[in-house]
Amino acid sequence: MASLYILLAIFLWSSLGIFVRLSGVSVHVLIFYSFAVSVFVQAIILSHKKYRKEIPDVKKLKIPVILGFFSLLNTSTYFYAFKHTTIANAVLTHYTAPVIVAFLAALFLKEIITKRIVISITFASAGLLIMLNGFSLEGGHTAGIIAGLLSGFAYAIIIIFIRIHAKNFNPLVLAFFTNISILIFLAPFIGEFPLRALWSFLVMGIVHSTIAPILYYKGLQSVTANKAAILGYLEPVCAVLLGFAFLKEIPGINSIFGGLFIIFSGYITIREKIPENNLPG
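The structure assignment produced for this chain is given below.
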């Protein structure tokens, strides 16, 4: 069931690129108001007495603040990628995360790193080079691809961080305080409310920033970091299909081959068999 929670969250997130592209507003404005909607919805739920006792003391709030910082870095670079390259490029570069997780898990969670994982790094790197080789610097895609890669790095940090600390928080409480942290970080840069994009704020705030994170955090309470990252490969498949269905985007040959290299690197990672005594608790 824990894996199903993560799969459902990833499926919902796979539609993010469509809403980012159709919203027609700046990345920071889109993030701020969609997360504001999310905080409002979560606050209503948390007002129930059964959740109030789950709210942590002030000392523990440093965890969602740190998570909020990396979540903002992940979200902002990911959204930037959606706006400056194709849906396929943005999502596929973002999903270098499982390979990065493999190294970070070895460092912070004592999960094993092996020759197979090193090989997966090689394939992921080759995939990125293929994708980047398909575009000139003037074409605009390079900035989007680099942003997608940065979002993948931030996403990997989030997976490790949640894996370490998620058991100490109710998933809804963790999502709520993380989102509040994001709003505080962004508030000084917000000076407008584009009413035309209200629909996107509502959908993204409720679906992508409330329902999906709660499902994901709940799943990560029982699923290992590497497995959680690999389950995310539902997203690039669905995202590319949705990009074609709604935006008529057909991935280029470099995106297809580079993306296949990246996905294969993730497959190599998940095929690595890790002894039970090396898994995190």
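Interim note for the steering committee: The chain has one domain: 2-278. The two ends are 18 Å apart (CA to CA).
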